[in-house]
C-alpha cells in the first residue's frame, strides 16, 4: 500500500530534544538498525574511540622510507612486510623486510631508502614468515625466512645483501618424500628463543618440526622413537589421527612458552614436558576441535593472547580456550545469518596486525566497480579495540577504508601485509605494503592521508522516538526540525570544517544538508558546555572545547523511523561527543 502524501499528515506538535550522548557503544550489525541502543552505531567508517566516551577520526597513512611515493624499488606490487630487530650502531633498531614476489629489500626504521637483497627466492614464493635466533653453526644471529616453496633461508641482518640457504647436510629435516629438505611456510621460536619451529611443509600438512635447544639448524631430537617418517628426524604430526579432522596447519606462533598450532578448523597447544626426566619434548593438547584459522596472515600476537580469523568470525585464544570477538559485527565474516553471505568474499587473503590495544584485519570485499566478485587481495578493514569494550564486553569495532572512502565502501587501502612497530625508536603504529603497487606506508601519524583528506562517516540507530510518540511510535510520523552535533576539533583562527548530515526515513527517502563549524577565534574560547554520557565538556580550564554544530534538513525529514548520519572529509582531526535531534510528532488527520 502506498504511503499517504505529506499533506495527509497533521501539523507537527511542539518539538522535543532527543539526545544521543556518549557514542561509545561501538558498531553493531548484529541488531537491526531500529533496535540499536542510543549509543550504538549502525555505520562507523574511518573513526574510532580516541578517548573514552567519544569517537574520533582515525589517523592517517603516509609514504614511508621513500617519502616521494613509498616505493621500495623492487617493482611489481607488495606481497608482505615484516619487522626484525638488530643492534645497529649500538642501538636496538627495527629493520623492515619488504617482499615483492620473489624479491626482498630491507630498510631500518627512519632510513630514507631501501637496500635490495640480491638473492631471489623461488617462483611462487608465498608471503614470508620470519623468526630470529642465534645460530652456533654460522656463528651469527640469523633471521630464518620461510616462504612455502624454498628450503628455509637465513639472513644475517643489515650489512648483508645475500641470503644463505639451510640444507639437509647441515641438519634440515627431509620432506615426506625423503629425498629433499622441507620447504615450510611458517616459522617461530619458543622458550626464550631456545628452539626453532617449522610448519606448513607441503608434503606433511600436519607436521611440526622442532629443532634442538639453542641449535636452530640441528634436528636430532625426534617426536617419537618410531621411524615411520622418512629420514632420521620424526616430526610431530599435530592432530593427526585424533578424530578432530582439523585439516592442514595454517600458522604457528609462541605464547607464554607454549607453541600454538593453528589448523584450518582446530587449534592445539604444544607444551614443553620432560620425558622420563631426561629428554625434553612437547605434549599437544586440543584447544578447539571446531574452530581454527583460515587466513595465515590474520594472526596477531598480544601479551597474553593471539587474535585470528576463523571461518565465521574473528577469535582470540590464550592457548586454553577461544572466544569470538566479532559477535556484534557478524555480517563481515559470518555467512550463516541472513542468506546473503558475509561481506568477506575470500578468507585466505585476509591480513591482521596489532595496533596498540586494537586488532585490525583487512579482508577481500571485492571492488565497488564489480560488486560480489573477489578482488584477490584485501580491500576493506575492520578494527577491534580491546581497551574499549561494548555493552556485551566485547571489543568495540568499526570499519577502516582508504582516504577517499565514501559510504558505503571503496577500495582505497589494499593492504597486502602489515607489521607492528614497537621498537624504542620507532614512530607511528604500524607499516603496511600495498597489494596493487610498489608502495610502503606508515600508519598512525597526522590526519593527511598521502597528502589528502580522510573521509569519516558515522550513523546512529534508526529511531522511532518512543519518547515523542509513546506507544504509537512504530506508527506515527515524526519530523526532524534540526540536528545539533557536538564536535571537538583543534581549529584555530578562521579555520572551519564542513559536515554533512543525512536523514534516512522509513520511506527509504533521504535528505541531506551541510553546515560549517563556527569560526573559532583562537584556542581559548569555549563554545557551550554540556554533559554527554560520562564526560563533561567546556567546564573548567582542562576541559575539552567543542562547538555545537546545527544542521537543518534541506527538505522535509518525515517518517515513522528516522536515521541520522554525519560525514566529513578533511585533513583535520575531530571528535564526535554526541548529537541531539529536534523532533516533532505529527498527529494523524481525523
Short description:
This protein is mostly beta strands and 590 residues long. The chain is built from one helix and 45 strands.
Question: What report would you give on this structure?
Answer:
- Strands 1, 2, 6, 7, 37, 42, 43 and 45 form an 8-stranded antiparallel sheet that branches. Strands 5-36-44-38-39 form a 5-stranded antiparallel sheet, with no helix packed on it. A 4-stranded antiparallel sheet has the order 8-35-34-33, with no helix packed on it.
- It has 1 helix and 45 strands.
- The chain is elongated and about 90 Å long.
- Residues 1-8 and 519-544 have low confidence and may be disordered.
- It has 590 residues and is mainly β.
- The two termini are 20 Å apart.
- Helix content is 1%, strand content 44%.
- A hairpin with a 2-residue loop joins strand 29 (346-355) and strand 30.
Write the layout of secondary structure elements.
Blueprint: E1 9-12, E2 16-21, E3 26-27, E4 40-41, E5 43-45, E6 47-48, E7 55-57, E8 61-63, E9 80-88, E10 91-100, E11 103-108, E12 115-117, E13 129-135, E14 140-146, E15 153-155, E16 164-165, E17 186-190, E18 195-199, E19 207-210, E20 236-237, E21 249-255, E22 258-263, E23 267-275, E24 279-288, E25 300-301, E26 306-310, E27 313-317, E28 322-324, E29 346-355, E30 358-364, E31 380-389, E32 395-400, E33 415-420, E34 430-434, E35 440-443, E36 454-463, H1 466-469, E37 477-489, E38 498-505, E39 510-516, E40 530-532, E41 535-537, E42 547-551, E43 558-559, E44 562-570, E45 574-588
Parallel strand pairs: 3-4
Antiparallel strand pairs: 1-45, 2-45, 5-36, 6-7, 7-45, 8-35, 9-10, 10-11, 11-12, 13-14, 14-15, 15-16, 17-18, 18-19, 19-20, 21-22, 22-23, 23-24, 25-26, 26-27, 27-28, 29-30, 30-31, 31-32, 33-34, 34-35, 36-44, 37-42, 37-43, 37-45, 38-39, 38-44, 40-41
Amino acid at each position: 500500500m502506498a504511503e499517504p502524501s505529506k499533506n495527509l499528515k497533521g501539523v507537527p506538535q511542539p518539538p522535543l530534544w532527543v539526545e544521543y550522548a556518549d557514542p561509545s557503544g561501538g558498531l553493531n550489525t548484529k541488531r537491526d538498525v531500529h533496535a540499536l541502543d542510543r549509543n550504538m552505531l549502525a555505520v562507523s567508517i574511518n573513526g574510532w574511540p580516541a578517548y573514552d566516551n567519544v569517537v574520533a577520526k582515525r589517523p592517517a597513512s603516509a609514504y614511508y622510507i621513500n617519502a616521494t611515493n613509498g616505493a621500495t624499488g623492487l617493482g611489481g606490487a607488495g606481497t608482505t612486510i615484516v619487522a626484525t630487530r638488530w643492534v645497529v650502531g649500538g642501538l636496538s633498531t627495527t629493520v623492515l623486510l619488504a617482499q615483492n614476489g620473489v624479491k626482498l629489500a630491507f630498510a631500518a626504521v627512519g632510513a630514507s631508502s631501501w637496500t635490495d637483497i640480491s638473492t631471489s627466492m623461488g617462483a611462487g614464493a608465498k608471503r614470508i614468515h620470519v623468526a630470529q635466533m642465534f645460530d652456533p653453526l654460522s656463528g651469527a644471529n640469523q633471521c630464518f625466512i620461510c616462504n612455502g616453496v624454498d628450503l628455509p633461508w637465513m639472513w644475517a641482518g643489515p650489512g648483508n645483501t645475500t641470503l644463505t640457504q639451510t640444507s639437509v647436510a647441515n641438519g634440515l629435516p627431509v620432506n615426506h618424500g625423503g629425498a629433499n629438505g622441507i620447504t615450510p611456510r611458517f616459522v617461530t621460536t619458543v622458550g626464550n628463543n631456545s628452539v626453532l619451529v617449522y610448519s606448513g611443509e607441503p608434503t606433511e600438512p600436519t607436521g611440526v618440526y622442532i629443532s634442538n635447544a639453542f641449535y636452530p639448524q640441528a634436528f636430532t631430537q625426534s617426536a617419537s622413537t618410531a621411524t615411520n617418517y622418512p629420514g632420521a628426524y620424526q616430526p610431530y604430526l599435530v592432530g593427526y589421527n585424533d578424530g578432530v579432522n582439523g585439516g592442514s596447519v595454517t600458522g604457528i606462533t609462541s605464547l607464554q612458552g607454549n607453541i600454538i598450532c593453528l589448523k584450518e578448523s582446530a587449534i592445539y597447544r604444544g607444551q614443553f614436558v620432560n620425558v622420563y626426566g631426561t629428554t625434553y619434548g612437547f605434549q599437544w593438547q586440543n584447544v578447539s576441535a571446531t574452530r581454527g584459522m583460515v587466513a595465515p596472515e590474520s594472526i596477531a600476537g598480544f601479551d597474553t593472547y593471539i587474535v585470528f580469523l576463523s571461518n565465521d568470525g574473528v577469535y582470540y585464544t590464550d592457548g586454553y580456550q577461544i572466544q569470538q570477538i566479532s559477535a556484534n559485527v557478524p555480517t563481515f565474516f559470518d555467512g550463516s545469518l541472513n542468506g546473503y553471505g558475509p561481506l568477506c568474499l575470500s578468507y585466505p587473503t585476509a591480513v591482521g596486525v596489532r595496533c596498540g590495544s586494537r586488532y585490525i584485519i583487512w579482508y577481500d570485499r571485492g571492488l565497488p566497480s564489480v560488486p560480489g566478485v573477489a578482488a584477490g587481495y584485501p580491500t576493506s578493514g575492520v578494527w577491534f579495540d580491546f581497551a574499549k569494550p561494548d555493552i556485551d564486553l566485547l571489543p568495540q569495532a568499526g570499519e577502516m577504508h582508504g582516504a577517499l572512502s565514501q559510504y558505503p565502501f571503496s577500495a582505497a587501502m589494499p593492504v597486502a601485509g602489515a607489521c607492528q612497530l614497537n621498537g624504542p625508536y620507532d614512530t607511528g603504529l604500524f607499516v603496511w605494503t600495498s597489494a596493487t603497487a610498489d608502495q610502503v606506508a606508515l600508519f598512525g601519524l597526522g590526519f593527511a592521508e598521502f597528502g589528502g583528506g580522510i573521509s569519516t562517516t558515522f550513523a546512529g540507530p534508526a529511531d522511532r522516538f518512543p519518547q515523542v510518540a509513546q506507544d504509537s511510535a512504530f506508527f506515527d510520523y515524526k519530523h526532524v526540525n534540526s540536528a545539533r552535533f557536538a564536535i571537538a576539533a583543534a581549529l584555530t583562527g578562521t579555520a572551519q570544517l564542513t559536515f554533512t548530515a543525512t536523514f534516512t526515513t522509513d520511506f527509504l527517502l533521504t535528505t541531506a544538508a551541510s553546515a560549517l563549524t563556527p569560526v573559532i577565534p583562537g584556542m581559548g574560547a569555549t563554545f557551550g558546555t554540556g554533559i554527554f554520557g560520562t564526560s563533561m565538556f567546556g567546564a573548567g580550564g582542562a576541559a575539552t572545547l567543542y562547538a555545537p554544530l546545527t544542521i537543518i534538513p534541506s527538505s522535509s525529514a518525515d517518517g515513522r523511523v528516522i536515521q541520522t548520519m554525519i560525514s566529513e572529509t578533511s585533513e583535520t582531526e575531530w571528535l564526535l561527543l554526541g548529537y541531539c535531534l529536534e523532533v516533532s510528532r505529527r498527529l494523524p488527520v481525523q
